[in-house]
Model the fold of this input.
Amino acid sequence: MGRVGVVLCPCELEGVPLFNPEVLVEGLKRRGDVLPFIHYPPVCSELGMEAIRAFLEKSELDRAIVTCSKPELFGPTFKKALRQWGLNPSLSEVLGIRPAPERGGLQEATGDVLILIERKIDEIRERVPSKSQGVPFTKRVMVIGGGITGITASIDLGNAGYEVLLVDRLPSIGGRMLQLSETFPTLDCAQCTLTPKTVETGQHSQIRLITYAEIESVSGEVGNFLVKIRRKAAYVDWAKCTGCGLCQEKCPSKVHSEFERGIGPGKAIYTLSPQAVPNKPVINRELCRYFTRGKCRVCEKVCPVGAIDYEQEDTFIEERVGAIIVATGFDLYPKEEIGEYGYGDVPDVIDGLAFERLLSASGPTAGEIRRPSDGRIPKEMVFIQCVASRDPERYMPYCSRACCMYTAKHARLYKHKVHDGRAYIFYMDIRSMGKGYEEFIQQGVEEEGILYLRGRVSRLFRDNDHVVVWGVDTLTGKKVDIAADMVVLATAMIPSHGIRELAEKLHIKTDEYGFLTEAQWKLYPVETGVEGVYLAGCAQGPKDIADTVAQGDAAASKVQALFAQH
Amino acid sequence: MEYLYFPGCTLYTKAKNLDEAGRECAKVLGFELKELSNWTCCGAAFPLAKDNIMALAPPARILARAKEEGGTLTTLCSVCFNVIKRTNRLIRGDEERREKINTFIEMDYQGDVQVLHYLEILKRDVGFDSLKAAVKRDLQGLKVAPFYGCMLLRPFEEMEFDDKEAPTIFEEFLEGITCEPVDFPYKIECCGAFQSVGAPEVAMECAYAILNSALKNGAEAVTTTCPLCQFNIDSMQREIRERYNDFPGIPIIYFTQLLGLALGLPIEKLDFNRNDVDPRPLMKEKGLL
Amino acid sequence: MKIEVSRRKVHNEFAQKVEEISGQNLFACYQCGNCTAGCPVSFAMDLGPHQVIRFCLLGLEEEVLKSNTFWMCASCLQCTSRCPKGLDIARIMEAIRLVILRKKERLDRLEVAELSEEFLERVPQIALISGFRKFSS
Done:
C-alpha cells in the first residue's frame, strides 16, 4: 500500500490559527506512510486547488485526507474535486478541524490535531475500496415529500429528462397547500393553482409516485444511494381500485380527520380530496370498525372491483438513486400544548390550517364560516399572530415568516364572507417583505376595516358562548378585553414529525428545532453536508409558498448540474 | 406517617378554621402533624429583590429547624408554602446566597428538606382513592369551585406543584371527598393579595371578578387553601355587596373544613362560625347539618 | 409629549438600579404587552407594566415613580409566568418600589396609623405582614 496524502489547509478560523503548520508537517513526516502537503494561500483558493491536483498527480497517491476548518461548507467541493482527480471517494476524506474549547496554547492544539489526523490515517489505511468503484453513476433522483416543493422539483427534473421517484407518507401528493383555501397576495384559489401541478406530476412519464410510504433506510453515496422504502398497507389493492369513491361514501364511520384539522369529520377509508393524486383510498386501521371491533366490512361489500384487502401488509422496496431531495415540509405547533389558550379545549379556538379548511370551498362547511361549537357565523372574530413563535422562553424563538401574511389573508377572506363582522388581529410586528405583500396588508386595513391591535394575548378562555380574549393594545397602552365569537391562532411552524429520524438516516444535520441544516445559509442554501443530498421548502425553515417553490426549483437545478457532470 | 407541620402566623389566630380542621383530619386519615418547635413567621412574601437576603432568613431558619427535627415539612397556607419552598430551592441552587444566609442564621442548611403542601400529602401519601373510602358524610351534589390563587402555582418552575394554566389537584381532591368540582376560568387568577391593605378597592374588584366567575359556572361555594385568599374573597364580600347591590354572596370554605365535613368530624370542630359568609345555611339546604 | 433621548438618559443610573435590584435586563423586553394583557390589576394602573419597563429603559425616572403601577402590583406572578422573554416583571415592580422605599426620606406608601381600628380587627396577619413588606421601608 502506498502512502496517504494529507493536505493541510492552513486556514485560520476567525483569525485564530488552529495549529502550527510546521510542527504538524514535521509530526506527520515522522510516520513513514504519510505524505503531508501544505499550501499557501489556503487550499480552497483557485491556486490551492490547482496545487493539490498537481500534488496528487505527481505523488500517485490513492488515499488522501484534506483538512478543513469548515467541512460543512467546503467538504462537498473538496470531495467532488478529489473524485475528479481520480481518487476513490471511499478512500479519501475531508476532515474538519475545529478549535476545541479545552485546548490550551497552540502547541497543545497542534498535538490534538496531529492525533486527530493520525487516527484518520490509520482508519483510511484499513479501508477496502468500496464496491461503488466502477459502479455507474445513477442519474435517477428521489424526492422525499410530495408537497408543492417536492412537486416543483419533481416536475423540473422530470422535464429535464431524469427519472424521478416522488415519495410521500400520505396517500396522495399535494401536501399542506392542498389544505389551503386561497393564497396571498393574489387570492388565487390554492386548489385551482395546485391541482394542475399534481395532475401533471401524476401523469408525467418520468415521475413515479410512491405514496403512503416512508423511508426505511439509506446507504451509499452520491451517484449511488440505495434507499429502502416501506409502503404502508393501504388495505386496498391499488392496482384493482378505480377510484370510484363508493367505499368512502358508504363507510359508516365518522372519525377525526387530520386533513380537516378536526373541524370536519372524515371516514375510516379515505382519500385526502376528490382530486387526490393518486386517487386511491387507504383504510385507517385505528379508526376502521372492522379492524377495531371485528365487524363491518361495508367497503368490501360495496367495492365493485373487489379491491379491498384486509390482509394486506406493509411491503418493502429498494431503489437506487444518484441524488435525493428532502422536502418534508412543516407541521403547526400543537395548540393542545398552549396552556394559556386553553390547551386546545376551547372548540371555537382553532389554528390557521383549520381556518383554511373552514374557508375552503371543498372544506367541511363548503366555505361558509361557521364556528365549530354551534355552527353560528362568528361576528367578533379575533386572530392572534406569533402564537408559540418569537417566544424564546416558552415556545419557539424564531419568526414563522408566513403568519403575518396568511393572517391578513384570513381576515380579508373573513370580511369577504361576513360583511357585518369585525376582524381583529393581535400582532407584534408586521413582516411583509414579499412582492405585493405590504400593499396587501394595507388594503385589508384601509378597505376592509381590519383592526390591528398591537400586542400579545395573555390568556383566553371559554365563557358561555363567547371566547374571552385578554389582550393588549400597546399603541394606546391599554389592556383589551374582547368577547369573541371565534379565535384563530397563527401557531408556529415546526418541522414535520419524524424529521430527525429521517435526517439521521440521510446523515444530514438538523438544528435544535429539527429543521434541516443547509451547508451554508447564504451561498449553499439547498445543499447539505452530504454530497448528493439536497433540501428544500419548510423542512429547512418556515417560509411561504413563493419561497418554497423557489427552493424546490433551486434544488432541482442543483441535481441537474450534478447529473450533467457524469 | 409523620410530618413536621408549620402553621404560620395566621393559622393560630384568624385562620384557626383552616388549622384545626387540618389537624383533626390528619388524625382521622392516620398521619401525624408534629408541630415544628420554635417556629416564626415566614415573612408572608418571598423577597423579589435580589439583594434582600434578610427576608430569606426567617424561612431559612424554619427549614433549618425542620432539618434538625428530621422530617418532611408541610404547610396548609399557600403563602407560607410558596415562601418556604422558594427559599428552599434558592438555598439548594445558589451557593453564594446559601453561605450568606447560613452566616446570618448561624446554622448550616443545604436546602435538602422536602416541602409539601397538605394537598400533596393527600394526593401522594394518602391517595384520593383512600380518601374517598374514608368519607363518612357524603357531599354529593355540593358544587364547589376550587380557588387556587397564585401562590400554590407560581412561579411554576419553582413550585413544581401542578400545571400552571390548568391545574387539577384541587378538583381531584374535591372528587375524593365526593363534592362536585366546578371548573371556572378565574381559579388561577389573583385575589388581590396584600392589596387588601394597600388598595382595598382594587382587591375588592379582583375578588368580585373571581366570585362572579365561580357563580356563573354554577358554584354554590368556593374553597381555598390560603388565609389571604380567604380574607379577600370571603370577608371582602361585605365591600362587594356595598358596591354591587345585586351580588348574591357565596360561602368561602377552607379545604380542610370541607375535608372535615366529609370525614364526618363534629360540626363544632369545623369552626364555620369563623367564616365571614356563613356556610351553614348552604350545608343545611344540602342536608349536611 | 416630548422626551429627550440621549446617551445621558437612555439606560441611565435609575434604569441600572432597577436592573440591579431586580436582576432583569430591561433591553430584553420587546414590548409585546403580554404582562399588561394578563395583569389582574391593570384596570387600576395608570401605566401598563410594559410601559413602565419602557419608561425605565428610557430613563424617565420621574414619570415612573409618580405612576401607581408598581404600587398596584400584587406580585401574583401572572406576568412573570407568561413573559415570552423570560423577564420576571414582578421583580421589576419590586425593584421600583424599593427605589422609593430605600430613599432616606422613607417615603412609605402605607402607615399603620392610616388603617382604621375596625379594619385592623378584621384583617388577617398575613395581609398586614405582606402588605407592610411591600409598602413600607
